[in-house]
Design a protein that fits this description.
Layout lengths: L1 E2 L7 H26 L5 H7 L21 E3 L6 H18 L2 E4 L2 E3 L8 H11 L27 E3 L1 H4 L3 H6 L2 E3 L5 H8 L3 H4 E4 L7 E4 L13 E4 H5 L5 E4 L8 E3 L2 H13 L5 H13 L17 H4 L1 H16 L4 H7 L13 H4 L1 H11 L22
Parallel strand pairs: 2-3, 2-10, 3-6, 7-10, 8-9, 8-11
Antiparallel strand pairs: 1-11, 4-5
Protein name: 2669_t:CDS:1
Organism: Acaulospora morrowiae
Keywords: Membrane, Transmembrane, Transmembrane helix
Length: 385
């Protein structure tokens, strides 16, 4: 059995993505200040000259066949979750032979999953339709209420971050730039009352879709199971689901479906020269390929907040164990006996510097091997974190 997997995310690439978003964010907020201030320094002017506008929305023209049928879903949560949902949506659309109505990437404060109708409401209020005047307001004028959150989020085409052409040639996609049903009705020339079939989710892991009636038993994480045949029998022009996020959300066993899954996995990969260049710069600053370890650890919300310190400490120790011959005792000494706090506190490293130096010598470690690139703490602390 094959389900879409999400292994091998290029940590460096997405670090570059975040760097690009920070630069873009800075440009939006401060470009007026940089041009209007009379007291600018040459270095500030030089910095500004490095910025340039980048088109992040790639608009694709489309024609609608009167007999065409569509698959729609709601995007939510962070970028990685949206990518998982897109992979599932592409696979399901291909199997059902429905044109995929693809929402853009939503960047900004994540819109968390909610029940179908509630999520629809959240997506509606997050759109910038009708707020085109917000970005034209001069800096010296206070923003009106409707514009207060205008600059905190944006929608980006998948074509900006990925090479979508092979996928678009493989299966038809229509970009759904607005979440409203009205936008769909107007652009697809269909009726909301007559042409929509909704499958509404009431929990995050509500339904699972399988291409075989004799497949594996119901996954305990999902409440309901739909066979592809059930969905194929729906004759409405638009089949609209809620969330499609989740591993094993669309699980396939038939040979054709398996090949579709492989195609998506092969082609839905990051491809953006701007971000790649930023990522290359980060790699160089970190010492080059093979000289650092990148991690993506969720620590800021939900269950992950309460377990963050323990998780970070566990992962850190596993990395040290797999990449050095240090024992736990060695590590505790090098940390200044602060393991219970999970982080270095106060001046513990400085207070134990003599002890650390002696231990390093006994273990045969050379200070030349552990030079810290920044003055975060003494270079002879052994493990730079």
């Amino acid at each position: 059995m094959i389900a879409i997997s999400h292994v091998g995310i290029r940590t460096v690439f997405f670090s570059g993505l975040w760097l690009f978003m920070i630069i873009a964010f800075f440009h939006v907020f401060y470009r007026e200040d940089l041009t209007s201030s009379s007291g600018q320094t040459d270095s500030l002017l030089d910095t500004r000259q490095q910025f340039k506008d980048v088109e992040v929305r790639v608009h694709k023209e489309f024609n609608i066949d009167p007999e065409e049928r569509f698959l729609a879903y709601f995007a939510h949560s962070g970028f990685h979750n949206q990518r998982v949902a897109l992979e599932n949506a592409l696979l399901l659309a291909k199997i059902l032979n429905r044109t995929l109505l693809m929402p853009p990437i939503l960047f900004g404060p994540p819109i968390p999953w909610a029940r179908f109708d509630k999520l629809y409401e959240k997506l509606l209020v997050s759109t910038k339709m009708g707020l085109e005047h917000c970005w034209k307001i001069p800096d010296q004028i206070p923003l009106p209420a409707e514009c207060l959150n205008y600059f905190s989020s944006t929608a980006v085409s998948w074509d900006f971050l990925f090479d979508m052409e092979p996928i678009r040639e493989w299966h038809k996609i229509v970009d759904r730039w607005e979440p409203s049903y009205g936008w769909l009705s107007q652009n697809l020339r269909i009726s909301l009352d007559e042409d929509f079939h909704f499958i509404k989710d009431t929990t995050l892991f509500d339904y699972r879709i399988h291409d075989s009636s004799f497949g594996s038993p119901q996954n305990v994480k999902y409440k309901r199971k739909f066979d592809i045949k059930e969905l194929e029998e729906i004759d409405k022009k638009v089949l609209h689901l809620g969330s499609l996020f989740g591993l094993h959300r669309v699980t396939v066993e038939k040979p054709d479906s398996v090949e579709h899954a492989k195609f998506i996995g092969k082609h839905l990969i990051p491809h953006n020269t701007i971000i790649q260049n930023a990522a290359d710069s980060i790699v160089e600053q970190l010492g080059g390929i093979g000289n650092f370890i990148g991690l993506h650890i969720r620590v800021s919300d939900g269950f992950f907040v309460t377990t963050a310190r323990e998780n970070v400490d566990t992962i850190y120790r596993r990395i040290v164990k797999s990449n050095t011959n240090l024992t736990l005792e060695d590590l505790n000494i090098l940390e200044g006996d602060t393991h219970d706090q999970d982080t270095l506190m106060g001046g513990s490293i400085h207070d134990n510097e003599t002890k650390i130096n002696r231990h390093l010598e006994e273990r045969g470690y050379s200070n030349d091997r552990v030079q810290c690139r920044k003055s975060l703490h003494p270079t002879n602390a052994g493990i730079n974190t």
